[in-house]
Amino acid sequence: MPRMSRLAFLLVATGIAASACSLAPDKQWLKPGQNYTVAEFRRDEVACTKDRRLDEECMRQRGWVALSGDAAPKPKSLEEQERERRQQTGSGLKLY
Questions:
Q1: Is 37 within a domain?
Q2: DSSP string across 26-77
Q3: Which one of 10, 83, 93, 95 is most buried, counting C-beta atoms within 10 A?
């Protein structure tokens, strides 16, 4: 019998681990340039939730902007940085 309980424990542990890994990261929402309360956010969140799924377009229409740490912005290559610098300063080549 102890072997069956170990097997059951391993199955439950594997199920919990698999479900935890499949969860999408939470997004944070804000209204840029505006003051708002948690109650206002919760009201809009409830209004934009259908079938336990948040309608992000609905939140955007109400003025909310999503912040997520899903992916960091791609760093610019040296060539891109140099191109931007040249555009800001003019031609880029200066003869003395």
A1: yes
A2: P-EEE-TT----HHHHHHHHHHTEETTEE-HHHHHHTT-EEE--SSPPPPPP
A3: 83
